[in-house]
Target: TetR/AcrR family transcriptional regulator
Amino acid sequence: MSTPRQSRADRRRATEARILDSARELFAEKGFDRTTIRAVATAASVDPALVMQYFGSKRELFSRAVQAFSVLPETPDSDALVEQLLATLDFKLGGLPEGAVAMLRSMLTDPAAAEYVRDALDRQIDGVSAALSPATEYPELRAALFVTTLLGVTIGHQFLGLTALHGAPPDRIAALLRPAFKALAEPSG
Amino acid sequence: MSTPRQSRADRRRATEARILDSARELFAEKGFDRTTIRAVATAASVDPALVMQYFGSKRELFSRAVQAFSVLPETPDSDALVEQLLATLDFKLGGLPEGAVAMLRSMLTDPAAAEYVRDALDRQIDGVSAALSPATEYPELRAALFVTTLLGVTIGHQFLGLTALHGAPPDRIAALLRPAFKALAEPSG
DNA sequence: CCATTCGCTCAACACTTGTTGACTCACCTG
DNA sequence: CAGGTGAGTCAACAAGTGTTGAGCGAATGG
Model:
């Protein structure tokens, strides 16, 4: 066996990916503070020092692990705004990427995560606001209510496991939310 | 001065109250994990060991500090359900007691806090559900949507400081939410 | 007024944490 | 095949954590 099955660079990339996967999973499950570098290293079958060598710090590891986080994949257009918002429910209730879960889970206790989420939601609110009919009063506020409503439902479902939400199919939730969202989108407040 | 201005028992009660106040404030500001017994003790001008002596453990201190937490003060009645829900917005946006803030802030990272909040919200959902018109389809789910919506708005405002929500007066938020809530309370889904 | 209680502090333990530097050894290159 | 490079490990440090037991001194009660 003169040649190993994997080149050094390949192994390197693989270990780095394994570390990032373990980190993402643990950050999503326990949040930033309660996830230790040692736990990540163990989950990735690697020495803790290697995690440091690759990512420099726990913070940097977190940033790298959760990157490409987005709550609302696409920017909505004005025609079917409500339907587009409701369509993200499928995504939010169960299909949420681990990076997003990690970010959301840490947002109430880690200022850096809070800032990140706030900025992301602010951007999202701007998008929704712009998609509302121009005649609408208080478009930013309405947009914020759309977004925070979805945030609340997500938290209640994914993080708290509220019993009334637990068994409900996303379609039914969307169906009940639809009239409410339509009312919220009505220009005449 | 044969008699001190405060009896020993008075001093004891006062110190205990001071510790509880400091704990509540710090737990509300930083959450369970990031609040240290030493920090609480310092804020209360007391030795860390005394905190342990009085409360036994950090967990117990937390429980005692946040006690009497409730998100929805009164159980709603069926007539003016929506108005009662909207009326809690004043309370939630700024007037939230520190104990509640502490509990909410820790709910995503501390399983004990998560369970507490989940149970509290479940109970609240039951109450709202019972207050809905008997002809309503999926009353628990609708109730859950009411509660999670308010939760989302609260988080967006109090914890994330979303810009679109920051400057908005509670009345205006309530006014915009009213048609949406009315639609959600409509028996015909 | 003296013995006792008890509020309170001091110093320390045992543990976990993020982080670092020296080291080993397999792989790559000339 | 020899020398270097770099992936990966080992052991340790320094700081911070919850928690504990011995002790001090003032209020208390007989």
Observations:
- Chain B touches chain A through 55 residues (CB under 8 Å).
- Chain B has a mean pLDDT of 93.
